[in-house]
User: Fold these one by one.
Assistant:
Number 1:
Amino acid sequence: MEKDWNFDEIIDRSGTAAMKWEPSILRLKFGPGRENLMPLWVADMDFYCPTVVKEAMAERLDHQIYGYTLQDPEYNNAVIQWYGRRHNWEIKEPWLMSTPGIVPAVNFLVQRFTCPGDGVLIQTPVYYPFAEAIRNNGRTVVDSPLIIADGQYEMDFEDLAKKAADPGVKLAILCSPHNPVGRVWTREELIRFGDICMDNNVLVFADEIHCDLVMPGFSHTSFQSISERFAQGSIAANAASKTFNLAGLSQSSLVIPDPIKRGEMSLYFQTLGMNPRGSGSLFGAIASRAAYMSAEPWLTDLIDYLHENYLYLKQRVELEIPGAKVFDLQATYLPWIDFRSLKLAPEEVVRRVEEGAGLALDHGDWFGENGRGFERINIACPRALLKKAVDGLVRAFDS
Ligand SMILES: Cc1ncc(COP(=O)(O)O)c(C=O)c1O
C-alpha cells in the first residue's frame, strides 16, 4: 500500500453536516454562544479515511444502481479474517449479524433480553448512551462504579459480585477497551468480570468498538475468545467505524455464538422491519471490507500518530497545569483528564474549558456522577489543532 496519508493535514469539515463541527449541534449541546468552540468531543477523527476505502466505494458508486442489496458475505469474511489475524479470535460466519450501529444494538438488546424494570449493569464513568439506552427503555441502571487504585482505573469486583447477584439484574454492558478511562482490560480482569456475570446468569454485552485502537505495549483480549462459556453467555459488538473513521456509514456487527440468542435477535430484527440476517448499509459494508482487507499500514501509522498526540498532551498538560492528571491512555483516542486536584468547582472546570480555552470537550459528568471534575478530549486531529487546544487549556487554567 503506497503511503498517501498525512495526518498533519488540516481538513475543513464545514458544510458536510459533521455532527462534531456543526454549529447548530454545538449550540444545542453546549449552549447559545458556543457555536464556535473548537470541537474535540464527538468520537470521530479529523483525518481522511484510507484511500482504498474511497476507491472501493467509488467503484460501486459507478454502477449507478443502489437497489435492495443482500447482506454482503464478503463483509463477513473480512470481519472473520481481521479478528482471527489481529485478535486471535475465531468467529464463525453464522454468528455474525450486521447492525446499523452499536448504539442501536445496545437498545435492541435491552429491549429483547430484559423486561421493564429489570436491572442492567454498567461501570461508570462510561460511554453515556449505555445509561440512556437503559433509562429510555424503562429499565434500571445498576451502577458498579470503577475505582481508582494506584493512579489507574479498575473494576470493583466485590461490588460487581454483590450487584450481579440481584436476580433482577439481567444484563451487563462491558466497555472493552473502556471509554472514557482508556483502559485495556487484562485477560485476568475479563475472566473475573465474566465469571461473576456467568455465575449469576447475567448476559454480557461486550462492546469492543475501540479494540483496534490500542496503544503500543498493550494488547486487547476479545471477551468471547476467552472461553466457550463466555462466548455462549454473551453478545459482542465490533465495527470498522472507529478504527477507520467510517461512523457515518452505519455498519457494525454483532457476534452471537449461542444459536438460541441468535434466533431471538433474528426474530427481534424482524419485528423492527429489519432483515433477520442482519441490517447494515450497502456502502458501509463495502467500506469496512476494503479497510479490513487493505488498510492495515494506514492503521499502524494512525496508532503511532495518536500515541504521539497523547504523549504531547500528557506532557504539556501535566507540566503546565500543575495538579491536572492525564490518565494513561492504553486504548482509544479519548484521553481522560482529572482536574480535581485544582480544587475548582466542577462547573468552574467546565466554564474554563469552554470560555477560557474555547473548547467543546465531553464533560466528565456526562459519563456519570463520578466523572465530575474530569474532561474527555478527542485527540484524533492534526497536531497543530491539538497544540492550539492545549495552549487554550493552559491559558484557561493559569491562575
Ligand atoms: C464504547 C462505544 N460504543 C459505541 C459507540 C458508537 O457506536 P455506533 O456509532 O456504532 O452506534 C461509541 C462511540 O463513541 C463508543 O465509544
Note: The chain has two domains: 23-50+296-396, 68-294.
Number 2:
Amino acid sequence: MRTLVWFRRDLRTHDHPALTHACRQGDDGVIGVFLLQPDQWKEHDEAPIKIDLLLRTLSELSRALSEKNIPLRVVTVGRFDGAPAALTKVAEETGCEALVFHAEYPIHERRRDRAVREAFEGAGLTVDVFHDQVLFEPGEVLTKAGDVYGVYTPFRRNVSQRLITEGVPSPLPAPTKQPDTGVSPDEVPEAIAGFKRFPKGSEARWPAGEEAARKRLQAFVDEGLSRYHEERDLPGIESTSKLSPYLALGMISVTQCLHAALQVDPDALDMRHRSGPSVWVSELLWREFYKHLLVGFPRVSRHGSFHRQYDGLPWRDSEADFDAWCEGRTGYPFVDAAMRQLKATGWMHNRMRMVVAMFLSKHLLLDWRKGEQFFMRHLVDGDLAANNGGWQWSASTGADGAPYFRIFNPISQGQRFDPDGAYILRWVPELEGLTGKDLHQPWRVGKEEVERRGYVMPIVDQKAGRERAIAAFKAYREDL
Ligand SMILES: Cc1cc2nc3c(=O)[nH]c(=O)nc-3n(C[C@H](O)[C@H](O)[C@H](O)COP(=O)(O)OP(=O)(O)OC[C@H]3O[C@@H](n4cnc5c(N)ncnc54)[C@H](O)[C@@H]3O)c2cc1C
C-alpha cells in the first residue's frame, strides 16, 4: 500500500503522527502533498510575512522529505473547495490508496476536511485523521457536567492532572528512508501573487524549517526558560521563546515543547509549583484551551463573541482613531512601540498584545474584530484560535476574559514593564533623549516640543477613554 500524506500546519518530519502512520502502514512508499490556497488565505487574512515563512518552510520540508525518498507534490487550488478534486487527482496520479492528515479546528477547515474525506471514501480510498496540534483531542477534556470548559484554570487543572496520570507521550522520531516511488517532488514557489515577499531581515529573524525551530527551542531552554516566570512580561528583553510562528506552522509540535520543559523541571505540570518551565507550560496550555474552544463554540470562528450577549456592544466608529492605532501614532509611546514592532517584524510580545488590544477595544471603544483582523494581516504567527481568544479576552467578550472594568493603563503598564524605556526607544526614536515620566507621557514636555520631534499628542485622554468604556459596558449590561 502507498499512502498520501497531506501536510498543512504540520510542516515537519519529527513527531508527525500522520507521517509515521503512513510509513508504518505501507510497503510501497509514501507521497507528500501540500495545497497552495492563496484565495482562501486572502479571505482568512493570512499575513504576507506568514506566507513568506510558509513557502520557505515548504522548501525545507521538501528537502527533508526527499532525503527519506518521500517526494512532496505542491499543487495550487486557490480555495478550500478545490481540495477534494486536487487531492484525489494527486492520489490517482501517484498510485496512493490511502490519505492521512492532521485535524484542523476552525470551521472552514473542518468543512473542507469532511468534503475531502467523502471524496476519498467515495473513491474507495481510506482516510485516517490524527491530532497533532493539541495534547488532547478537542471534546476529550470536559467538565464534570460534560461541557467544554469556558474557564481556563479548571481546564488547565484537568489537562495537567491527566498528563501527570497518563504520562506525556514521547515525541515520535522522523521516518526512516522509504521505498522509492519514482515520483518527483514539485518545485516550491518563492512567492505567490497577492502576497508580497517580506523585506530583508525576515529570513534572519524567522529562519525556516524544523531544524531552525528545534534550535530556537534549545536556545530558549538554555538561556530563557528558567527565568521565564520572572521576565516574561518585559518586552524590552528577549524574555520569551518566539516559537509562536513555528508552532503556528507546525515546524515544532506542542509535545516537543512540553517535553523540553519537563526535562528542565519534571514538576512543571504541577499547578502548585511555580518555576520558569511551569509558567511556560501554562502558556502552552492557554494555546490548547483556545483550540478546544474553537470546536466547542464554533461561533468564535465566525467572528461571534464568545459570550453571545456581547454581540451588540455599541462600538464607536472612527477611521481616524483606528488608523492612528494601526500606524503606531496614538501618542501613547508604549502602545505605539508595540504597533510598530508588529509592522516591522510580524511579531509582538504577549504583554504588548494585551496592552494594544485593550487600548483599541476600551480606550478607543472600537470593535475588537477590527483589531483581530489587523493582527491576522500582519502576524507571522497568526492563529485563529489564539488571536481570537486573545482579542476577546482583552475586549472582555471572551471565555475567561478580563472583567470590563479592569482596563490596562497604557502609561503605568509602560512604567512597570519597560521602566527604563528601552522597548519604547527601540521603536519610537522620536522620543530619544526623554527619560522617566516624560518618556512615558511625552505630552508633559508640551505640544510644541512633541510636534517638533515628529511625534503626536494623545488621540484620547487616558482617564476619559477609560471612563467612556466602563460607562458603555455598564449601560449595555444593564439593558441586557
Ligand atoms: C490580542 C492577542 C492576540 C494574539 N494573537 C496570537 C496569534 O495570532 N497567534 C499566536 O500564536 N498567539 C497569539 N497570542 C498569544 C501570545 O501573545 C503569543 O502566542 C506569544 O506572544 C508568542 O510569543 P512566544 O512564542 O515568545 O511565546 P511564549 O511566551 O514563549 O509561549 C510559548 C507558546 O505558548 C503559546 N502561547 C503563549 N501565550 C499564549 C496565549 N496567551 N494564548 C495562546 N497561546 C499562547 C504560543 O504558541 C507560544 O509560542 C495573542 C495574544 C493576544 C493578547
Note: The pocket of flavin-adenine dinucleotide is lined by residues 232, 240-244, 247-248, 283-284, 286-287, 290, 349-350, 353-354, 357, 375, 379, 381-383, 386-387, 389-391, 394 (CB under 6 Å).
